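User: My collaborator and I are trying to settle a disagreement about how two of our proteins should look. Neither of us wants to argue from intuition anymore, so we agreed to look at predicted structures for both before our next call. Could you fold the first one, then the second, and keep them clearly separated?

Assistant: That sounds like a sensible way to settle it. I'll keep them separate. The first protein:
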Amino acid sequence: MNKSFFLLALIWVLVVPAFGQSNSLEVNNLERYKEELPYFQELITGGQYTNPPQNYEGYPYLLGKSFELGTLTINQIYYPEVLLLYDIRYDQLITLHPIFSQNLLIKPEKINGFSLSNLSSFQRLIGNESYLYNQNGFYEIIEEGKMNLISKHYKTVVRSKELGDYFASYEEFEDFFFYDGSEFFPVTSKKKAIQLLDVPKKSVRENIIKRGIYFNRDKREFLKSLVLLSNTTSSNLSNDE
């Protein structure tokens, strides 16, 4: 297959879905792309994605197992309405070839960030390579502040203990971190989270716990509220000065 044909096919994946809504924007993206990325397939395609085993119960993706429209930023160029799947077992982002109906891997090192159909936003971050599940370094950006709240989604495979239709199944996890732009701080307990953000315990009780938000019940909501409280506290201190 010659480069020009394959190039055109991949442009279709990233550009065509949104033409009905914003022709001028997408044409501008395409023109910029033609100018700056002469061989797009060499930048984006990491090969064909291998579908998960059929004898595994469930799926390795973060959301459903069907492609849905998201957004993608590659080499600082933003592409809206891209068909995406996010495999969190291997930390791989997948798109769909529109002509050959092949699932294609997007090279992780070329990805700045992406968002999924549920509006969750992800960035590729470096500096946490010692973390077991870092893999390609995609983290969800949950809340921004003096310390950003981010999380790592991943799935592991659990072998079935009983004979049946499935050999194994997927188990999903989410680990939380505070991130200051260079360093990752694992959040493993409520006490550690409060210490890292330096929020007064009394303020936590009055503004978070009294609202029925508890770390052990809903870590995501508790930590998100804690970051928002930390932002407010920092803002008030700055105003007092």
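The second protein, kept apart from the first:
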Amino acid sequence: MTDVIHLIFPGELIDAASAVLTGTGDPDTGRLPLETRASNAEVEVHGKISPIRHGHVEQQVIVKPAAGGDGRTLGCKTVSLKAPLATSPIGEITTTGVGGKPLQVLICSDHVTLEVPGGQADDIQAILDGDRAADEKAGACLYSYTADFGGGYQADINVVAGGDGELPYIDASLFLNGSELDTLEPDEVLLGEHSFCHDDLTFAVTLIRGRDKTPVVRPTQQAKPARPRPRKSGSAVWI
């Protein structure tokens, strides 16, 4: 049986590495300490993400015995991520743990930012404020946004219709492999940070205003003017 451990990186470090992979970030972020660690009763895992150049990032995990062990290295693995196959360092690495058993290291982020189109954000907030009616049954989900932290961690931010004269509200929950870990108190504001806690871990989703999608307008092709029909040549007949 494969042991599993979650290696959770700060969201800004995951974002920086993702930007390098997609060619929108500066490879010099490799000078930053893109490192974190996690431990359980048996092992301590050190993780490092190293941006190399645009479209190329390396991940490395080193496994050692938990505190009190002899400090030797149990397992070490380096993975090379390259665009376009990889756009984020979130994923999994299998290496060696205690007794030579396989150890699955799940690389996660503790923060995800989601964009909500500006017009949609305004419509939703108007519904939450009661300025616009939500023609749905009580408890119906009007809008839903999902943040994937990796490693099976996921958060759902739902806009839910109220009942018995109550206004709609934000229902936000954190899950691990489909099992609910934390649920926030109902909220009345969509945009901003929604923060969850579980087993001394903190995960956050930030909803920000994004651009509205502009439809692509293609120019109408004008019909080419018809060429004048050539006149047939002939001889005139005089009477």
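Some points you might bring to the call about the second protein. The helical segments are 11-21, 118-128. The chain has two helices and 14 strands.
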